[in-house]
Amino acid sequence: MKKILSVILMLSLIFALTACGETGSESNTAAPESARDTSAPAAGTSEPTPSSGGKSIVIYFSRAGEQYGVGTIEKGNTEIIAEMIAEKTGSDIFEIEPTDDRYDLSYNDLTDYAKQEQNDNARPEYKGGTDLSAYDTVYLGYPIWWGDLPMIVYTFLESNDFSGKTVYAFCTHAGSGNSGTAGKIEKILPQASVSDSILAIAGTTAQNDRDRARAETEDWLNEIGR
Predict the structure, then answer these.
(1) Nearest-CA neighbor of 119 among 141, 142, 146?
(2) What is the C-alpha separation between 92 and 172, in angstroms, rounded?
(3) Among 33, 55, 112, 207, fewest CB within 10 Å belongs to which?
(4) How far apart are CA 112 and CA 108, in angstroms?
């Protein structure tokens, strides 16, 4: 009788241990490799996502005449880059033109005048206008004057509704690069998505080395996914 009880107790113990082992194994079973989400979280970035559709426009301010490092020119440095971007992206194009001849000056006189406008926080008027409601993407071009946007560009930015637009800036310069103008544009246009990536091309390159200017422009467009 004792032997029978011993056998029964032993079988009961073996059954209990087996059940516990199976439960533990199930709770710790990993999903097969093919079923796991192995993608890493996307890194944080302030770079806007390019829109998949919609129209785009190139808006620019440029100046011909006597310029630093390139002499007297018939087409402004920024205008050259603006036309390259419009051609490559199939964008419409609009030039910000002053209502008067205020910038038809020699280079030295222009620099003095531009500095005075900056000191006065002037808002020069421009000709005509364009309806931005039809556009998702705006390419904004300008020369760097005294480490900043020309004041007439401020006029345009403050006079138009950029709500929901993606803005990509490009500029020409005489050695100063983009002068941190993306941050200035972002402050003026909090309702828009302004890219941190600015195309900055030396005026001498835009004017005298069009092949290099085009290559730099196309590299930038590829970088921002346009």
Answers:
(1) 146
(2) 20
(3) 33
(4) 7
Who contacts 187 (Cβ-Cβ below 8 Å, separation ≥6)? none
Question: Do 81 and 217 contact (CB within 8 A), yes or no?
Answer: yes
Q: What pTM, to 2 d.p., does this model score?
A: 0.77
Contact criterion met (CB below 8 Å) for 135 and 86 = no
Q: Greatest CA span in the chain, whole angstroms?
A: 121
Residue type, 66: E
Q: Which residues contact 97 (CB under 8 A, 6 or more apart)?
A: 126, 127, 128
Structure tokens at 192: 């828009």
Length of the chain: 226
Averaged over successive runs of 10 residues, the pLDDT of the chain (226 residues) comes to 40 38 30 27 37 81 94 96 98 97 95 98 95 96 98 98 98 96 96 97 97 98 96
Q: How many CB atoms lie within 10 A of CB 134?
A: 10
Output the six-digit token pair for 121: 């926080």
CATH number of 55-223: 3.40.50.360
